Amino acid sequence: MKLIFEFVNQHPKYKWKKDEQIKRSIDIGNPQPVGEKFSYADINYLLLTEIIEQKTQQPFYAAIRNLLRYKELNLTKTWFHMCPK
Questions:
Q1: What does residue 9 show for φ and ψ, rounded to 5 degrees?
Q2: Cα separation of 44 and 48, whole Å?
Q3: Is the pTM above the cut of 0.70?
Q4: pLDDT by residue (tens digit) across 68-85?
């Protein structure tokens, strides 16, 4: 885990691709048996975005806007960092 933080600190502007993040999590991860212990990991969020993109055939940010009906709810000031509106 120390190595990942060293890399991040040395390359603060590096733009991680989702596939890189998932692969890195697999390489350095320590999976826990299902149902025995809860442990949060950011990888869960990445996997969720992958599932949503696969099911909707849309980029995550677009799928969320549509699924949560941003327009119908008049959510005009809500946005995703670094994603087109």
A1: -65, -35
A2: 6
A3: no
A4: 898 898 988 877 665 555
